[in-house]
Every structure is written in structure tokens, then in C-alpha cells.
Amino acid sequence: MGDVKGGFASIGECMIELSGNSGDQWRMGFAGDTLNTAWYMRALTDQSYPVEYVSAFGEDDFSQKQRDFFQSHAIGTAHSPTIKGVHPGLYAITLSGAERSFTYWRSDAAARRLASDRNALKSSLSGRDIIYFSGISVAVVFPEHRAGFFEVLRECRAEGSRIAFDPNFRHQLWPDRKVAQETISEAMKLADIALPTFPDEQALFGDKDAEACAQRIQELGVKEIVVKDGTEPALVLVNGARALVPSVKADAVDTTGAGDSFNGGYLAARLKGLSPMEAAQKGHAVAARVVEIRGALAPMETARAAFEAASTASKT
């Protein structure tokens, strides 16, 4: 995977999350798919190994709280720009019985400008071992910046970085299905490692099963593909060779971040030199423990214990 000094960079949007059980008392936290994966990469790599979250921030107090949060957990922000007059995206979770609903304020979020300064983006990403992004990262970037965003990724890949991509399709972030299909397919062509989730891919592309999903992505030129499918086995397709890797039994209470934590476990394992099949076992093990805890960000020590236990189990 290259020199360990290169580190891991995750690109995307960290949002302010407001949640509360009742009344007018709200709890503030931070959330985002690529943030979740960066969190688990931080948990599962040596503390001296650089883990960076690449985005864009405002000058406001909430943006500073985001930066403080990253710093307190040994996650850097590389050369992410600070932009005057903009703020983080925000969403609120409201409960009706056991059902959760989400209200978003993100149309002019700072992160939409993460590719506005091409030089800053290139400086943040150049020389990394692994660069990770998602379909949400692509969707939130202003459309006029996407070509430059993709070009920077293309350059970094040509220089030796490995690109990992989770399409993570969310229909509400796209103007229509055709634009989503075209843009996500274009992004996928940049990837060395694809980490799709089958129900998302079926909703967007109409794939009949995980095998069809993997074949479609392989035809885009991706050599390493892991199709996640909840509690079903993950389909691993590497250079034409396929395997099914069973999930790990869990008493799930909250599936938020399950796929993101799988990705973190998988990529951390690949970084350590494990095979794709072994890495998928690690990803399942981490995700199984994460879904047993409320919230997307399980304690780092919980993730580490699951990751290490999976390596012991695979040797017995």
C-alpha cells in the first residue's frame, strides 16, 4: 500500500447532528458517512499513522467545534480550506414512537466547496496510501467543481495512491436518477477498490443481485470489489476471482454506520497486508459490534477489540 507516512484521507461532509429524546433539549454531535469511515480507520491503525478528513469549513463557532472534534481524536484536516461566510450542514433527528425522521439544512454547506480550491485539495490528497470518498461526497460537491475533483483524484491515482469508493446512493441528493447513474459511474472508474451496498445499487441501477452488481462494476475497470448486503454474505470479486464472506452474528440495535464501519475495517485490514477475503471478515466483525451500540461512532476501543478478535478467530 505504499509508505506508511502517506496515510489515509477521507473526503466528504461532516454535518452537525441534533438529536433529542423529548422536550426542547437537544444534543449536538457530528455525523457523516465518510467521517464514520475515518473514525474507524483511526481506531484500527497505529496512532502514529496519519488519518485525515478532507472537507471545507467555515469561520463560525460550529466549524471550529468540528475541527476541535477531529483534533481531539487524532484525525487531521490536511489542507481543507476555511471559507468566509459559510457554515456546516445540519440535520435534526425527530422521533415518532420508534420511527426516526430526518430534517436537513445543507444546501449551502461549507463542504459543498471542498473542491473549490484545486491546489488545496491536491495538497491534501497527494501521496496518500489510500484516498476514500463516497457518492455522498460527490453529490454534495457543487456540480461545477466535480470535474476538477475527479481530475485531482485521477492525478493522485496516477502518482500511486489507491482510491476506494463507496457509491452510497441517496436519491434526495441528486436532481434525477440519470445524473446520479452517470456521475456515480464516472466516479467508479477512478476506483481501485469499490465498496458498494447492494440495496443502494439495485435502487439506482436495477441490478438483479449482488453478482450482477459486481459484474457491472468490474466492467467499469475496478479490480477489487466488495458488495455489502446487510446480514447476507459479502461478495468479494478480485481480478475475476469471487468469494462469499459470511457476516458476523449481531444483536443489532442501530444499523446507522454499519456499512461505513465495514469499510473502515476492510481498508484498515488491506493496509496491514491482509487479503481481500480476510479484510472482509474484519469488516464484518467491526460492523457487527458497531450495530450493537446506538449511534454511528462506536467507542474506538470497541472497534479495535472486534478487529483483533477477528484476526484470532481466523487463525483457529
From TrEMBL:
InterPro entries: Carboh/pur_kinase_PfkB_CS (IPR002173), PfkB_Carbo_kinase (IPR050306), PfkB_dom (IPR011611), Ribokinase-like (IPR029056). It comes from the Bacteria. One of its GO terms (biological process) is DNA damage response. Keywords: Kinase, Transferase. Gene3D superfamilies: 3.40.1190.20. GO terms for cellular component: cytosol. It holds the Pfam family PfkB. The keyword Ribonucleoprotein does not apply. Residues 9-302 form the Carbohydrate kinase PfkB domain. The keyword Cytoplasm does not apply. GO terms for molecular function: 2-dehydro-3-deoxygluconokinase activity. Belongs to the carbohydrate kinase PfkB family. This is 2-dehydro-3-deoxygluconokinase. It comes from Falsochrobactrum shanghaiense.
